[in-house]
Structures are given as structure tokens and as C-alpha cells.
Specification:
Length: 71
């Protein structure tokens, strides 16, 4: 959903660095649980759950080769 908030406004409201938040939203940085919880507090808890689930799935996929090396 569109909340009508700029990245700068969201960063200010949750106490995060604007550049870091922008990089997370553009897929350049991983989303930390702390940031996910802060966004969830601002938007809704489902947002935090979704961000954490997506990050977890991404981490598993990214580490697939590493896991295969142990077999």
C-alpha cells in the first residue's frame, strides 16, 4: 500500500539513517530484524513479519552453494 511517506520521513519516524533505509528498500543492503521491527511498529506488524521472512528466504538461497560444499 501507498502510505504517502518519503524515505526521509520514515527514517526520521523510526530513528534510522536515511541512506541505510534507502539502500534496504532498493535491495542494496540486507534488512535487519531491528529495522524490520521498527518499520512494523510504524506501518503494521505484518510488514515486519514479511520483511523478516523475505530476508530469511534470501539468506537461504544465497548460502545454497556454501551448504552444498559441506555435502
Amino acid at each position: 500500500p501507498e502510505y504517502g511517506l518519503s524515505v526521509s520521513e520514515v527514517a526520521r519516524r523510526i530513528g534510522a539513517d536515511r541512506a541505510t533505509l534507502s539502500n534496504v528498500l532498493h535491495g542494496k543492503h540486507d534488512v535487519s530484524r531491528d529495522l524490520a521491527y521498527k518499520l512494523g511498529a510504524l506501518l503494521n506488524d505484518e510488514t515486519a513479519d514479511l520483511l523478516i521472512a523475505y530476508q530469511h528466504a534470501y539468506d537461504l538461497e544465497r548460502d545454497r552453494d556454501r551448504r552444498e560444499a559441506y555435502k
